[in-house]
Amino acid sequence: MLVVLALALIFAAIVFLVLGMSWQQDSTMSMRLATLRGERPAADFRAATPRESIGARLVAPMAASMGGKVQAFLPTRWIDGIEKNLIQAGQPVTLTGFLFASLLVLGLTLTMGFTLATASGGLTGMGLLLFGVLGAFGVVMPKVWLSKRVKYRQKIILKSLPDAFDLITTCVEAGMGLEAALAKVAEKVEGPFGEELAICLREVSLGKLRRDALKELAERTGVPDLSAFINAVVQAETMGTSIATVLRVQAEQMRTKRRQRAEQQAYQAPVKMIFPLVLCIFPTLFIVILGPAGITIYQTLIAQE
């Protein structure tokens, strides 16, 4: 049992070390965006980039090597899906790093499953079932973690869209161009949406067509409401429609959707409260109310005997 615990701790330490490199990548992306906006001198960014943790410098080459080998044996469609999810999650870790961490998690769960199965009588019956369940858990868990990161980032972006759209509409109606309005939003709005807008504007400044940069922005985020907004803007530019009118309509729709989501969550709250009430509060109330009576009845029966 101690051997299993030691292996679990070793695997967990390496996994968290690999996944912890996301903090370094997030910091690097933030510094790059700050450099593009002119908030930070380029010399500071170059000086700060090599300051990685010792663990990252030791594990990153091994993760890249082993992750690349694992990638060669996986289907291309599956790899493309993982890359898309990593982009939508804000690149918390590289593709090879994610594959390496997934391999470690799978190895950990298979080791634990084999050890527990052997201790329970071998790979037959319940032992084989336990080994299979833990192996499946090791395969699914990294994908679930990545999906949660994607949903969390999309939730943050979706939350910031109504105010951002209102600001874009106000700037355009005040006489600013669309790119200038987007730049203002990228400067004022904090979080993933502001970062993605800064990347989009940087691509436009490097020569990419604005509609292509906006469409790639929609693909990187994966938020349906943002995709609808970008499609409306691109269509308005193509057909020569007033962008200010389109922006006003989209901003109004976004505010309406935000209000509808809030109402939906309010309606779902009583249903979600049923399970905590039944599982946590009601048993406690029964113990408090019926406990003294039960003790009294028990003492009475004992006294009669």
What amount of the residues lies in strands? under 5%
Quote the distance from N terminus to C terminus.
48 Å
Q: Give the number of helices.
A: 12
Number of strands: 0
Helix proportion range: over 70%
Largest sheet features: none
Counted up, domains total 2
Average pLDDT over all residues: 78
What sort of overall outline do the alpha carbons produce when their principal axes are compared? Answer: flat
CA-atom Rg in angstroms: 27 Å
Structural class: mainly alpha
Low-confidence stretches: 21-29, 39-50
Q: What is the H/E string?
A: HHHHHHHHHHHH
Description:
This protein is mostly helical and 305 residues long. It is built from twelve helices and no strands. Helix 6 packs antiparallel against helix 7. The radius of gyration is 27 Å and the shape is flat.
Secondary structure blueprint with pairings:
Layout: H1 2-19, H2 21-37, H3 42-48, H4 54-72, H5 76-88, H6 95-119, H7 126-173, H8 178-188, H9 192-205, H10 210-221, H11 224-239, H12 243-304
Helix pairs in contact: 1-6, 2-9, 4-6, 5-7, 6-7, 7-8, 7-12, 8-9, 9-10, 10-11, 11-12
Entry summary:
This protein is mainly alpha-helical and 305 residues long. The chain has helices at residues 2-19, 21-37, 42-48, 54-72, 76-88, 95-119, 126-173, 178-188, 192-205, 210-221, 224-239, 243-304.
